[in-house]
Amino acid sequence: MNSEDEVFEAVGALTDPVRRGLYRHVAATPGAVGRDAAAAAAGISRSLAAFHLDKLVEAGLLAVTYQRLSGRSGPGAGRPAKLYLRAPGERAVSLPPRSYDAVGRLLANVVDGAGLDRELQSAARAAGAAEGADLGGDVDPVAALRSRGYEPYGDGATVRLNNCPFHSLADEFPALVCGMNLAFIEGLLPGCAGGGDWTAAMDPPPEGCCVALSKTNEA
């Protein structure tokens, strides 16, 4: 999806509040989501959920996959279910057009080329600490990270982050950007309610943010 008109159409598909809620649920859920689960999350009927989910697919915001939810295969296993997941790629609207990604890429090139990784991490940690201080200990780490676009979710005793807010730059400069991201979260945690009980570390999953959180008193 490259043209400005296509981006506007995709964003326009989210003006309906039900559709917007379904998109948020699917986008924030690791893996694919079925129609029944999406309908239950939105508090609507399965048929209405299917209608809106398919509209989101048409707009390029969701993708479709098919799986047998029973886990069985062969005769009698039933038809694969239609499941939905966040479509790859990014969509951004800026009026008038801006190119912040180009500036970010240029700055990352300079910092990377000059070997200023430690200085960047120190600045990121200080920025996280400043934001954490503003929280005043009133917001827990999960809520703090959710409000910053990380889309946290539980994975056993670990909290993983379904979204990397710096995805395009992290793909191009992984060591630089992931190190900055980790330092920022480390700086943020002490200002969160109970943040001292959590440790952030590099633990990249196949998809999502490279940083994961775990309780300091748990293995």
Automatic annotation (TrEMBL):
Gene3D superfamilies: Winged helix-like DNA-binding domain superfamily/Winged helix DNA-binding domain. This is Helix-turn-helix transcriptional regulator. It comes from Streptomyces fildesensis.
